[in-house]
Amino acid sequence: NTYKFYELYARYKIQNTKYKIQNTNILDKWIIARLEQLKQEVLNSLENYELDKAVRPLGGFIDDLSTWHIRRSRERFKSESKDKIAAIETTKYVLAEFSKILAPFAPFVAEAIYKMTSDNKRIASVHLEKWPVSDKKLIDKDLLDSMAEIRKIASLALELRSKEGIKVRQPLSELRIKNSELRNKKELLKILADEINVKEVVFDAKISQEIELNIKITPELKAEGLLREAARTIQDLRKEAGLLPKDKINLWLEVPAEARSAIEKNISEFKEKICAKDIYFSRTDKFDAETETKMENFAIWAGVKKI
Questions:
Q1: I want to staple 114 with a disulfide (CB 3.0 to 4.6 A). Which of 24, 31, 126, 233 is the partner?
Q2: CA triplet 195, 201, 202: central angle to 5 degrees?
């Protein structure tokens, strides 16, 4: 799944297979640190003939790559910026290196991934590659520990959302954290805020629990939630129509007045998010795909047509 996601967005060849760590996104630095840590863990176990222990970290790394690095980098992949190139380049490098670690345990999968991601044409098979040696300088222990804490807090906050019956696409105003150790980790706090969809993360030693979530939904927050809900509906419809992320569409919508107002106030951002040229608030029979569903208990209809 991670490879297929990479393939969807990769449209160029990396000229230099030697990975450059300078000036990269914090998520890229983190997954590279995890990769180098994995190399070390697996090698240590293999050298001690502890084959069961050698296999165990592989699943955890795949989960980190797919459900955190890739998922938190989705908007980077969709953008048209240098950060998009960094996300694609990093993912390709990680997949190629991981195939070498995976090779003794899942030889055919490793071979397939290697052939699809390696630029080294002189080596015909992953099984003819040298075993990857860990670069300990890239194992940023502070970053690894801090990201683990961010993910723990995100999990707790998402549990609170679930208990209150508030969807993740509904923005909230504030998350309060008792522990102040992350106070200066601005890049990581931004990832946390995006993951749990809050406007602000603040530190408060006086709160009784480890975290507190402000669940009051203002009219402005509700409108933004409607906008995100509508965007998600259109993205699902694009997939149903077999459209690629780059494909431009025209969109026809029948939505509640509240949702229409939210979309019209943020029309440029909404168009960019769903890759639309024009939006019409009416029905049509000139569509490639259509859907009828509910949003906030209101019926909505949408039709898309590729331009």
A1: 126
A2: 160
Backbone CA torsion sign across 260, 262, 268, 274:
negative
Residues 6+ apart with CB under 8 A from 195: 72, 154, 158
Cα–Cα dist 138/272, whole Å: 36
Supply the pTM of this predicted model.
0.87
The identity of residue 263, as a single letter, is I
What does the alpha-carbon distance between residue 153 and residue 158 come to, in Å, rounded to a whole number? 9
**Which of 206, 199, 155 minimizes the C-alpha distance to 179?**
206
The strand ranges marked E within the chain are 172-177, 198-203, 211-214, 249-254, 276-280, 289-295, 298-306
The structure tokens listed for 167 are 């969807």
Which of 266, 267, 269, 299 minimizes the C-alpha distance to 280? 267
Spell out the per-residue pLDDT of the chain, length 307, in tens: 999 999 988 864 444 445 554 558 999 999 999 999 999 999 999 999 999 999 999 999 999 999 999 999 999 998 878 888 899 989 999 999 999 999 999 999 999 999 999 888 889 999 999 999 999 999 999 999 999 999 999 999 999 999 999 999 999 999 999 989 999 999 999 999 999 999 999 999 999 999 999 999 999 999 899 889 889 999 999 998 999 888 999 999 998 888 888 899 999 999 998 999 999 999 998 899 999 988 777 788 999 999 9
Residue 125: phi and psi, rounded to 5, are -150, 150
Tokens of 30: 């983190």
Count CA atoms within 13 Å of residue 231 on its CB side: 22
The residues pairing with 278 across neighbouring beta strands, listed in sequence order, are 250
